[in-house]
């Protein structure tokens, strides 16, 4: 395993998994400009690292992310350079990352922190973790995060929770689609590890392509949709990665892209 140290975002890599740790517990991992800049840099670096197959987003301290850094925001109002203006870039980087992103949420998440959770492809939280769209209680709106949150939530839950700002737990977060799974705190890490192991078994190009399908916008007609998707499927079957995957299956072995420790 290798590691690089940064002041607000720590990066560790091993077995095809890069773990990005929000490391600003003094302000409950708030989304300050420095933290967001470092998170963007880390995501960009992991995107270009061929040894990295999966990205895990986690945290130090009891809080996953408290949302916007309100101290910095208050000081920046006069200049007009509000930190939340950067949040869209962070959410887009997670959403568009060609590698699967897994959010590990061991504690509370609020406001912008829920945007991070929703932007991830898979999100695992502790059952005891709490969540709240607290924006309205501050006199602001959950505008930026709605781009990643609303595709995940049921409409009724979104209306209730956006408008009331009420707190809810990990079990409800799972029921309404905000997270993939709520696990007991003692099995959180094992659950995340199991998902990561499953993800690294997939072909890197195939995983990126599948994320593209999950996020694509439908065409005008079903026939056009099927035509485009058929061409996409044929291309992957004809690709070098696709041919290796089929050979590995027929030969009852792991494909060449599977990390050695898992083969």
- Rounded Rg: 19 Å
Within the CATH hierarchy, at the fold level, what is the topology of the largest domain? 2-enoyl-CoA Hydratase, Chain A, domain 1
Distance between the termini: 17 Å
Number of strands: 10
Describe the secondary structure blueprint for this structure.
Layout: E1 2-4, E2 9-14, E3 17-22, H1 33-47, E4 54-59, H2 70-76, H3 87-96, E5 101-105, E6 109-110, H4 112-119, E7 122-126, E8 130-132, H5 146-149, H6 155-164, E9 168-169, H7 170-175, E10 181-183, H8 188-200, H9 204-215, H10 222-238, H11 240-250
Parallel strand pairs: 3-4, 4-5, 5-7, 6-8, 7-10
Antiparallel strand pairs: 1-2, 2-3, 8-9
Description:
- α1 packs parallel to α3 and α3 (87-96) packs parallel to α4 (112-119).
- The radius of gyration is 19 Å and the shape is globular.
- It has a seven-stranded mixed β-sheet with strand order 1-2-3-4-5-7-10, with helices on both faces. A three-stranded mixed β-sheet has the order 6-8-9.
- β1 and β2 form a beta hairpin.
- The chain is an alpha/beta fold.
- It has eleven helices and ten strands.
- The protein has two domains: 9-199, 2-enoyl-CoA Hydratase, Chain A, domain 1 (Alpha-Beta Complex); 203-251.
- Belongs to the enoyl-CoA hydratase/isomerase family.
